[in-house]
């Protein structure tokens, strides 16, 4: 299997127990990373530094990059990309939990198709207890399906991706774009001819649910969505009708009160249906609801 790096950014507001769980899930994989680059986005708390020191002493593959001040996720990831040794880089958030076979499944996809630029997968979401899954976010599999899917919503779950570092840098890396840096990156990569694929399995367990939906609103998000859709249209990666539809659907949800947005999420997006964990909630693609809540 090809060697790969894992890229994580952490900042002072993270909880130490979340970071510990995230790092444990990275190192306790069926295929352990050849390198893990952990970016400290500004000074951390003593408790977080203790967790970092604990893992740094235990795993020689962990490399810590300390930034003098907080620069935000996108810029922190760019700094981390500069020091990643390998072309394959897996993204991981500092409060999520990777499934044990995540990297093995992604490496297999790259081995079977060397032309791939991004390999993502499904996520499950929980609010407090990782054992209590409240929803699952799935996405299509093949490049053709995903580029069609992109016309309505982001084609890959950012926290699950493993990508070619060279293709990311070719597209300009992470760039500040309101709060939508990852979506903006996928659009630019598609415009540069990137090939996408999603493993049709759950790869990451994410802290989300209704609490996440309540946070993803406000005029800044709404303005960002409008600007992003316009940019995508001008780049030729979505059609004019796609731009209008996406703005019409997403803009009202972004500016409505958090309580109403959470209600929409819990009553419509999270509709219980049978699934492999006893139940899963209805996908965004099965309801006319913005998927990025």
TrEMBL record:
<keyword id="KW-0328">Glycosyltransferase</keyword>
<protein>
    <submittedName>
        <fullName>Putative glycosyltransferase</fullName>
    </submittedName>
</protein>
<dbReference type="InterPro" id="IPR001173">
    <property type="entry name" value="Glyco_trans_2-like"/>
</dbReference>
<dbReference type="InterPro" id="IPR050834">
    <property type="entry name" value="Glycosyltransf_2"/>
</dbReference>
<dbReference type="GO" id="GO:0016757">
    <property type="term" value="F:glycosyltransferase activity"/>
</dbReference>
<dbReference type="InterPro" id="IPR029044">
    <property type="entry name" value="Nucleotide-diphossugar_trans"/>
</dbReference>
<dbReference type="Pfam" id="PF00535">
    <property type="entry name" value="Glycos_transf_2"/>
</dbReference>
<feature type="domain" description="Glycosyltransferase 2-like">
    <location>
        <begin position="5"/>
        <end position="162"/>
    </location>
</feature>
<keyword id="KW-0808">Transferase</keyword>
<comment type="similarity">
    <text>Belongs to the glycosyltransferase 2 family.</text>
</comment>
